[in-house]
C-alpha cells in the first residue's frame, strides 16, 4: 500500500476504525440496518424490525423456519415479499433450509419438519390501508425503474386524491355488501370465502389520465 495513501488523514482514520471493528460487530451493524422490504408506507430495516413486521414477534421468539425466510428475502425484498408473493417466499425459504442441511446446520429430520411448515406470516394493521393498493402500484413502478436502492432524501409526488380515495373505498365496501346479500339469498347462506366475488375500482382524471383513486380488491389484507 503506497505511503501517500496513509498520509491522507481521512483515509488513515478509516483504516484505524476498520482495524478496531470485529467481524461480529460489522455483522451486527449490518443485521440491524439491512433493508428488508416495506409494509405500508414504511421501510423495514434490520432483522428485529422485520421480525415484528412479518411475524408480529420479537426476534427472540422466532422458530427455526422464520429466520430462514428473513435471511432469504434480503437479496430481493420486494420480489420475495411473503405477503404479496407467498409462493416465491416459500421457495426461497426452503432453499435456505436446504443449504443449511447441506452444510450440516440441520439434521435430516429437522430439515423435513422445517420445509413442511407454512410461512407463518401475520399481517398487522397498516398505515393508510385504504390507499395501500395505490401505494403498492407506485412502489412497483419505482422498483421497476430504480431497483431496490434506498435513498433517504428521495421524494415522490403522486396523483392520489385522498378524498376520492376514501369515497372509492366506501363505495366498494357498500357495493360488495349488497353483492354478498344477494348471494346469500340465492345460496341460503354466506358465500364460501374462496369463491367470494372480488372488485376493482380505478378513478382517472379524463383530462390528464392521472390516477386519482384506486381499489384493487374487497379487502387489502387477504390480497396482500
Walkthrough of the structure:
The chain has 224 residues and is mainly alpha-helical. It has 2 domains: 34-126, Orthogonal Bundle (Penicillin binding protein transpeptidase fold); 144-223, no CATH class. 52% of the residues lie in helices and 8% in strands. It is built from 10 helices and 4 strands. The strands form 2 sheets. A two-stranded antiparallel ribbon has the order 1-2. The protein has a two-stranded antiparallel ribbon with strand order 3-4. α5 (65-73) crosses α6 (86-102) and α6 packs antiparallel against α7. It is globular and about 60 Å long. Mean pLDDT is 81; it is low at 3-9.
What is the compact description of this entry?
The protein has 224 residues and is mainly alpha-helical. Helix content is 52%, strand content 8%.
Shape: globular
CATH architecture of the largest domain: Orthogonal Bundle
Return the average pLDDT rounded to an integer. 81
Structural class: mainly alpha
For CATH, the homologous superfamily of the largest domain is named as Biosynthetic peptidoglycan transglycosylase-like
Radius of gyration: 23 Å
Order of helices and strands: HHHEEHHHHHHEEH
CATH topology of the largest domain: Penicillin binding protein transpeptidase fold
**Uncertain ranges:** 3-9
Counted up, domains total: 2
The total of beta strands comes to 4
Q: Which class of the largest domain in CATH terms?
A: Mainly Alpha
Helix tally?
Answer: 10
Q: What would the keywords be for this entry?
A:
disordered N terminus, two-stranded antiparallel sheet, 10 helices, 52% helix, globular, 224 residues, 4 strands, mainly alpha, Penicillin binding protein transpeptidase fold, two-stranded antiparallel ribbon
Amino acid at each position: 500500500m503506497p505511503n501517500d495513501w496513509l498520509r491522507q488523514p481521512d483515509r488513515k482514520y478509516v483504516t484505524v476504525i476498520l482495524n478496531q471493528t470485529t467481524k461480529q460487530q460489522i455483522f451486527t451493524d449490518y443485521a440491524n440496518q439491512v433493508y428488508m422490504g416495506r409494509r405500508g408506507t414504511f421501510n423495514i430495516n434490520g432483522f428485529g424490525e422485520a421480525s415484528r413486521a412479518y411475524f408480529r414477534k420479537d426476534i427472540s421468539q422466532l422458530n427455526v423456519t422464520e429466520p430462514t425466510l428473513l435471511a432469504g428475502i434480503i437479496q430481493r425484498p420486494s420480489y420475495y415479499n411473503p405477503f404479496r408473493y407467498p409462493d416465491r417466499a416459500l421457495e426461497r425459504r426452503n432453499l435456505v433450509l436446504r443449504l443449511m442441511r447441506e452444510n450440516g446446520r440441520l439434521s435430516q429430520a429437522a430439515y423435513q419438519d422445517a420445509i413442511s411448515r407454512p410461512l407463518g406470516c401475520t399481517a398487522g394493521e397498516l398505515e393508510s390501508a385504504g390507499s395501500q393498493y395505490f401505494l403498492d402500484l407506485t412502489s412497483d413502478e419505482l422498483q421497476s425503474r430504480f431497483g431496490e436502492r434506498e435513498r433517504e432524501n428521495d421524494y415522490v409526488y403522486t396523483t392520489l386524491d385522498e378524498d376520492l380515495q376514501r369515497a372509492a373505498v366506501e363505495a366498494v365496501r357498500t357495493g360488495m355488501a349488497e353483492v354478498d346479500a344477494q348471494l346469500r339469498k340465492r345460496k341460503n347462506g354466506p358465500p364460501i370465502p374462496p369463491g367470494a366475488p372480488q372488485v376493482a375500482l380505478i378513478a382517472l382524471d379524463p383530462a390528464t389520465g392521472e390516477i386519482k383513486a384506486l381499489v384493487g380488491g374487497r379487502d387489502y389484507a387477504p390480497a396482500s
